[in-house]
Amino acid sequence: MLVESKIDLWWKNAVIYCLDVEVFLDSNGDGIGDFHGLTERVDYLAGLGVTCIWLMPFFPSAQRDDGYDIIDFYGVDSRLGDLGSFTEFIETAKAHGIKVIADLVVNHTSNQHPWFQAARSSPNSPYRNFYIWKDAPPDDPPSLVFPGEQTTNWTYDDVAKQYYFHHFYPHQPDLNPASPEVADAIKQIMGFWIQQGIAGFRVDAVPFLIELKDEAEVQEMTPHEFLRDLRSFVERRRGDSALLGEVNLLPHEQVKYFGNDDELEMVFSFYVNQHLFLSLVREDPDPLRKALDNMPPIPESCQWAHFLKNHDEANLDKLTQAEQDEVYKQFAPQKSMRLYDRGIRRRIPSMLEGNERKIRMAYSLLFSLPGTPVLFYGEEIGMWENLKVEGRLAVRTPMQWKPGPQGGFTTAKPEDAIRAIPTGPSGADGINVMQQRRDPQSMLNWMERLMRRRKETGEFGFGKSKIIGVGQPSIFALSCDWDGRIVISLHNFSDRAQDADISSELPEDVLEVADIWTDGDYPAVEGGKVRLKPYGYRWLRIIKQGQELLM
């Protein structure tokens, strides 16, 4: 079999769109989204400008943790379709030039998984070492992922007559990374889905996946050797594959997961995300500046993945308690809006109180940060959460396609739908794709233009970025240089018009300073003086002698 060569670093200039199949579009009226429905909407995603679809778990599961409690790594949840409908979706996406990555959730399984059932059946089971067992739980303080819903990391199993380890819920026993058989099983899973057309994986809970649970355990490879082995395996099977890691650590710890350009290609920048929230609350970009200054250098082919809102709670655990309280006060003033003593279960438009200028400034900023932007489904139309839905699921409500109680997601009765969408102005009657497609000034059409401009501005993905001073502290300014092509992005965090001075960044042979993305009409830049409206934004291309403006 010929292995594809890595002819391009597609993830460096991608627009990644995360979605959950079960809440995207229901094609058969049973109240649950499916792959046939998703396939119908590939045209929509391609037109929007998406270059990579990230699929949340679609495997058979016990459905106690929204699909993250998997019972079969090689199948498709029968509610969503089968391997045939999955393949149809992959081929349709491929025909539109869209790559697909899938959640790789192999830190744990469901306790209903055949591996666990075999492991608990006998100490001599070949699957016993797939999990971590103890006769008695250690005295170590618990490391709880879901405070308030967990009290321990060890649960007694009546059949095995031992305790098993779990970072997450008791019904999700952790796999044992010290087991060579587990490493082989993970590679077989990855190889299978690569063969089905997947271009890579979003790797769930990476630190938990590779860490040893007991110092006495013997492991053939160190944790990072284990991660390098997975990367090497995937690349041998698909040369343009990519691994995007969920690594919620401080920057100096996160950077280790890139390795020497031989571990993860992309890592989510939780640290930047949390300090961006703080900046939005204060209307002061200084926390964001400091966060970016703290980001260490990474290998040239690797990339930070930036986001405003993901599919989980908006985690604030890298902020001080005082900073968290500051964000909570504005973005989640009610206890019901918070989760796990560390996060917010709301979407961006509601956190920003529907202030459209501020919302658009935030997304313009996201798409101009040095890295790759990641969107959560519905962000392109400004969807809100439904706080009547419990826990994290509040932000995972069905996609709002058109007006009506079910938002065009399904023809099933409301009581038969998998989840309820919001009611009122933030529901489908007020926010939906159909109406926004007809409005040139809508969030949807604005986001489509933003995505197109971002893909045309490779400086943000491939170039070297630096924070620049422009004489106004409320303006966040970045200069990005890619092979002598320079773009400067400016974003006003203030509710007042501001003036910036970029004259110190203009080369001597500058010919023109051209607006390539703005929030409205502005006078031409003269002498480096740049005007910004309240919550305004401008991307400026610096055209030098001998260069042409690429519009």
3D structure, described in words:
- There is one protein chain.
- A hairpin with a 4-residue loop joins strand 5 and strand 6.
- This protein is an alpha/beta fold and 551 residues long.
- The strands form five sheets. An eight-stranded parallel beta barrel has the order 1-2-3-7-8-9-10-14, surrounded by four helices. A five-stranded antiparallel beta sheet has the order 15-16-17-21-19. A three-stranded antiparallel beta sheet has the order 4-6-5, with no helix packed on it.
- 26% of the residues lie in helices and 17% in strands.
- The chain contains 16 helices and 21 strands.
Can you summarize this structure?
This protein is α/β, with parallel strands linked by helices and 551 residues long. It has 16 helices and 21 strands.
Pick out its properties.
551 residues, alpha/beta, TIM Barrel, Oligo-1,6-glucosidase, domain 2, Immunoglobulin-like, 3 domains, 8-stranded parallel β-barrel, 16 helices, 21 strands, 26% helix, disordered N terminus
Write down the CATH class of the largest domain: Alpha Beta
Number of DSSP strands?
21
Largest sheet: 8 strands, parallel, barrel
Strand order of the largest sheet: 1-2-3-7-8-9-10-14
Mean pLDDT: 95
